[in-house]
């Protein structure tokens, strides 16, 4: 999915502030994607429990998880999806949509 974002000149979205996360969530709900699973660019693929932005490799800052997440359910949840009350970690092989962030030139 990050490759698809690269094709657009961007990368998987990096949520850097609570306001940005709220904005993303509103976009998602406005597009009626409420039932959709939508990936963000946060992952802990490098080291379990240490979430970072897939594109910039910087540690997670500003974004927030929902209650009781991340739970690394079944030990295979290393990607994240945007939910109403915060982020959730989920299996990176989940068939889902994703948000690309494209810098303005
Ligand atoms: Ca994990
Ligand atoms: Ca989870």
TrEMBL record:
Pfam families in UniProt: Lectin_C
Coiled coil: none
Annotated C-type lectin domain residues: 1-101
The protein, known as: C-type lectin domain family 4 member e
Naturally occurring in which organism (per UniProt): Plakobranchus ocellatus
């Amino acid at each position: 999915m990050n490759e698809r974002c690269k094709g657009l000149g961007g990368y998987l979205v990096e949520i850097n502030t609570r306001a940005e996360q709220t904005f993303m969530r509103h976009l998602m709900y406005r597009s009626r994607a409420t039932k959709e699973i939508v990936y963000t660019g946060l992952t802990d693929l490098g080291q379990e429990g240490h979430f970072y932005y897939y594109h910039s490799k910087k540690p997670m800052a500003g974004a927030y998880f929902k209650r009781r997440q991340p739970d690394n359910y079944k030990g295979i949840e290393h990607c994240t999806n945007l939910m109403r009350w915060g982020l959730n970690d989920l299996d990176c092989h989940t068939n889902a949509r994703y948000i690309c962030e494209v810098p303005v030139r």
